Each structure stands twice: as structure tokens, then as C-alpha cells.
From TrEMBL:
Pfam short name (any one): DUF997
PANTHER family xref list: INNER MEMBRANE PROTEIN (PTHR39174:SF1), INNER MEMBRANE PROTEIN-RELATED (PTHR39174)
Domain of life: Bacteria
Organism the protein comes from: Cytobacillus dafuensis (Bacillus dafuensis)
Transmembrane helix in keyword set: yes
Keyword annotations of the record: Membrane, Transmembrane, Transmembrane helix
Protein name: DUF997 family protein
Length: 96
């Protein structure tokens, strides 16, 4: 088997973007878990409400969703690259 075969540069980009996606998922889970179990573990009598929702639910689910949508938009716009999925010939033109 040939060892000097070059790795497709698209795989490097895909790996980087996959790690960014994993980071976003971990951030989302930590955000959700921290607010849901950090604020939601009190007795119900001590709950505070925002827009009719318990405070822990509002911050973990409503605000967390908005934060994640904004983060995903920023990450995709500034860190992800548009990669063609066509195989290229040596001259740089796509195969047909």
C-alpha cells in the first residue's frame, strides 16, 4: 500500500468543522444542564417565573435556544468553508 498518497484537503476541513460542531453540542449541553439543574433543583415554592415560565426553564430552553441559533449562525458564517463535493482532475476542473 502506498504511504505517500496525499490526504484530500477537504477531509481536513471536514474534520475541523466536525470538531467545531462537537464543541457547539457540548456548549449547548453544559448551558442547558447548568440552568436546568442549577436553578431547577430548588423547591417549587421558591421558583421565580419569567413570561409565565419557571426561571430555570426560561434560561435553559428559551434563552439557550436563542443563544445556540446565534452561535451556529456566527460559526457557519465565519469558520466554515464552502467545499465542493465533486472529485477534481489534476488540472483543477471537476470530473464529469
Amino acid at each position: 500500500m502506498k504511504k505517500n498518497k496525499k490526504k484530500d484537503p477537504r477531509f481536513k476541513i471536514a474534520e475541523k468543522e466536525a470538531w467545531i460542531g462537537i464543541g457547539l453540542v457540548l456548549f449547548n449541553f453544559i448551558w442547558w444542564f447548568g440552568f436546568a439543574y442549577g436553578m431547577g433543583s430548588e423547591p417549587v415554592e421558591n421558583y421565580q417565573f419569567i413570561l409565565g415560565l419557571p426561571e430555570w426553564f426560561f434560561y435553559s430552553c428559551v434563552v439557550g435556544f436563542v443563544v445556540m441559533v446565534i452561535l451556529v449562525i456566527i460559526v457557519v458564517k465565519f469558520f466554515f468553508k464552502d467545499v465542493p463535493f465533486d472529485e477534481e482532475k489534476e488540472g483543477g476542473t471537476p470530473k464529469q
